[in-house]
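With this grant's support, we have settled on a layout for protein records. One resulting record is reproduced below.
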Amino acid sequence: MANMVTYEGIYDILRKEKIYPELQKIPENFLLDVTTYLVEKSSILESQKQKDSIFAERETEKTARQLENIKKMLKELYERRENKIVKLALIASKSGPINTASMIKEEKEMYGALVENLNFYRENILKKMLKREPILLKTREEGEDLKSVRFINPVPEFIGTDKKKYGPFEEKNTASLPYDVAELLIKNKRAEEI
């Protein structure tokens, strides 16, 4: 299916995100489509810069201004959605899981990591303090080192040596994984260290 992202479409998505307090549903492939759109717009701009006429100069200025506006809109859209996701993660940490249907895959990963971190610290600070237990923060798994990797091949969901589920991961996804799991993925040419 062709890339359906337009300047007006991005503006409309941002407008809805500004108007409504709840996270708005966006297309699942939004990040990929927007990246493709930006590449196409940049290519058009470069092509226009090669032409030598007064008309081409006006078109070049218009395209450059539009490209700059698109980047500003995308930055604001990201920050508004990020803020809403952080608030949802706080709610989920206090009250339990929430509906994540309006989040795209990358946002669900961010949300999951936020909830996991918030729960970890809530358990190890607040609950221990209320029980009058000593607060001794340790890494999640004693002695466990994490390694960041970028996947160079898709990897289905799997169980690591720590008996936890990981994945699934798509090509170009990044993750911080236990050292031995990351090393195995690197050795099997499924991921690379970053």
Q: What stands out?
A: Helices lie at 7-19, 30-50, 54-95, 105-130, 179-187. Residues 54-95 form the longest helix (42 residues).
